[in-house]
Specification:
binds 2-phosphoglycolic acid; alpha/beta; 8 strands
């Protein structure tokens, strides 16, 4: 049985005080123990938020990571730095990184290699543009993103891979993929994991959905057979909304 995962991607939001207050509000909820809840604050708040969540079952992830372990990469953060903040999960390949920071499949492959070699868990994001979907190219696009960065990983690494399907046209736009569209893509992803690896890995990998998930649509999306939770942007900045989404999973 795959555990449901609800991850909040705070993106570039919140002062330290705002983040602490958001965490304090979340800690007042009594979330079911069988749901994995993950919060991804900015790099500067990893230690702070991790410390605040020490005695809770909420985990912390970083939003990004560099592929090198150290060196002359001004402004970048390595896996060992993230780990020394007590955090061992990272989001990789978010469409905002791919689009605004030119992260290519090749760069992402290096980041995935580094994270998995360092025994970190990754939430690897894939997603198509509206034009891909309109031209019927969305399945090929997702397949190619997976082939280039994660389908070359050894079987053993799959225990540390979570896939997030995030159609770009649904991120921060208020437009959500329909439950059927989400289920169709998640099943496609599970099937190609099975083709490239085996049924057991395909059945155990968590595939979560991101793109304008809110309290009003969470239940319909999360109840789909191959949807194992969500990666939540905007709605994760409000404790009531995020809690309602966790409780809908
Ligand atoms: P959104 O963002 O929920 O604000 O659409 C999702 C994401 O970017 O992970």
């Amino acid at each position: 049985m795959r555990k449901k995962i609800i991850a909040g991607n705070w993106k570039m939001n919140n002062s330290n005080a705002e983040s602490v207050s958001l965490i304090q509000s979340l800690l007042k909820y009594n979330f079911a123990k069988d749901i994995r809840i993950i919060i991804a604050p900015s790099f500067t708040q990893l230690s702070l938020i991790n410390e605040k969540l020490q005695n809770s079952n909420i985990e912390v992830a970083s939003q990004n990571m560099h592929f090198a372990d150290n060196g002359a990469y001004t402004g970048e953060i390595s896996s060992s730095m993230i780990k020394s903040s007590g955090v061992s999960i990272t989001i990789l390949g978010h469409s905002e990184r791919r689009t605004f920071f030119n992260e290519t499949d090749e760069i992402l492959k290096e980041k995935v290699d580094r994270a998995l070699n360092e025994n970190m868990e990754i939430i690897f994001c894939v997603g198509e543009q509206l034009s891909d979907r309109k031209s019927g190219n969305h399945f090929d696009h997702i397949k190619s993103q997976l082939e280039k960065a994660v389908f070359n990983q050894p079987d053993i690494s799959w225990k540390n891979i979570i896939i997030a399907y995030e159609p770009i046209w649904a991120i921060g736009t208020g437009e959500t993929a329909s439950p059927n569209q989400v289920q169709e893509m998640h099943l496609f992803i599970r099937n190609i994991v099975s083709e490239n690896y085996n049924k057991s890995i395909a059945n155990s990998v968590s595939i979560i959905y991101g793109g304008s998930v809110k309290p009003s649509n969470a239940k319909d999306i999360f109840s789909q057979l191959d949807v194992d939770g969500g990666l939540i942007g905007g709605a994760s900045l409000n404790s009531n909304d995020f809690a309602a989404i966790v409780n809908a999973s």
